[in-house]
Amino acid sequence: MSTNVLRTADGWWVVRGERAVPVDTQAVTTAELISDRDAVREAALSADVGTPVADLVVLSPVTTPCRVVAQMVNYRSHARDSGFPEDVPPAFFRKASGSVSGPADTVVRPSHVRFLDYEIELGLVMGAPLPVGTVVEERDLPAYIAGLVITNDVSAREVQLTKTQFYESKSYPTFTPTGPYLALLEPEDFTRLLGLRLKLSVNGELRQDRTLADMIVRPARALTLLARFQTLDPGDLLLTGTPGGTALKAPPKPVEKIGALLPPAVKWKAFFKSQAKNPHYLSPGDVITATIATPDGRIDLGEQRTPVTDANGTRST
Asked: What's this model's pTM, rounded to 2 decimal places?
């Protein structure tokens, strides 16, 4: 069964129900903790009654700097929303690790961004080096993936679309909320991955709700494709795509065909004028809630709850 780990400014903790037990380790980084699994196991078996989890100020369990890589359009429902065929070619992009923030930290909308979007994603935390040229089979996953985290691939859509710029649009500070738990997996846990259900709500309204069965390129294949050109190391993070339900959706096909005939500046002006009527983009005062778990709770990554503010600090009270 997986073991949930938290990180605070004081160190690492193993979660046992509503309480957490400190891990006796010198590990500072996620990679160092992964290499000290014996200390994690000892904490899990400790007689220490622990500290209430609610009393802890939790940080991202993925420490930075690290590589943050993401899969693009990797759920069938998201492909439909985005106007892609279901056989969309697999693609990856990088995010700055400076975008990683904690599971309760505020998401800050930059002053020049109007169309701020959410994307719940399962994050794979590497536990071993993945050299270029590696071929990963399903049976090999426990050798490369140490654990799982909730991530939110927050996106500045006008930057992404008008500049065709994924790196900038998804790399502003606070644009990758991560955690609360790092679920360290045992080999038998990998058979449960497809049962993981991703749910994201904004102000209590459910927006995204799918299992990994909706995934187009699953983790073993994704690691193989990524390893054609990218090395990964322990502690690095792979975001595996988001289900349908984001604020951004492709326009109807007739509108899209007309837009393709327009000069880019005119096309985007018209598109974002229509998007301004869409109430699903994030605004200051919104609260995003995200969970990922199997139905039986054997893998449960906790609840991520992040408020939204603008660059001037405006948010609800």
From this structure: 0.94
